[in-house]
Amino acid sequence: MTASTKLTITIPDELAQRLEPLRNRMNISAVCAKALEAELALLQPLAGFEQAAEQLRERASKVRNEAFYAGVEAAREWLATVEISEAHRFVDWYIFGEPAELFDGTASDSMVKEEMRTQSLIPSSLSTSGILESQDARYFLRGWLSIAVPGLRAAGFLTA
Predict the structure, then answer these.
(1) C-alpha of 134 from chain center
(2) How far from chain centre, in Å, is Cα 9?
(3) Among 130, 100, 102, 106, which residue's Cα sits nearest to residue 116?
(4) Is the pTM of this model over 0.90?
């Protein structure tokens, strides 16, 4: 005989009224145990999927953070070495171009990377290292802009 735990359940009044005339013909505990076993059989595999999905979300978040901070570092390097003409070209792109399209989800990661290369937003040390091939370019660009734009504002290239 297996050990048992007492469990109190609440059922709707209508179900209790229908159950009452048949109570002496059924083992309510056994019926509830079977129903709970069936529900667990459905839910337990989902718990494994949910755990795997959470691990994937955590890994994606880590990759995004790595990409963001790689962008931050790239922007710092870019600001330290940028030529005035290159800074002006970036400002023109930033103000008159369409950088918002890079964030709205319509541009593919490869399009974002190509735009970043075209606009010289990637230092040559990074563009040849392959670091961007393994990272989410949108988050890299967000990190890059989070440093480059305030840096260019401070230098007087951008206003408000």
Answers:
(1) 16
(2) 39
(3) 102
(4) no
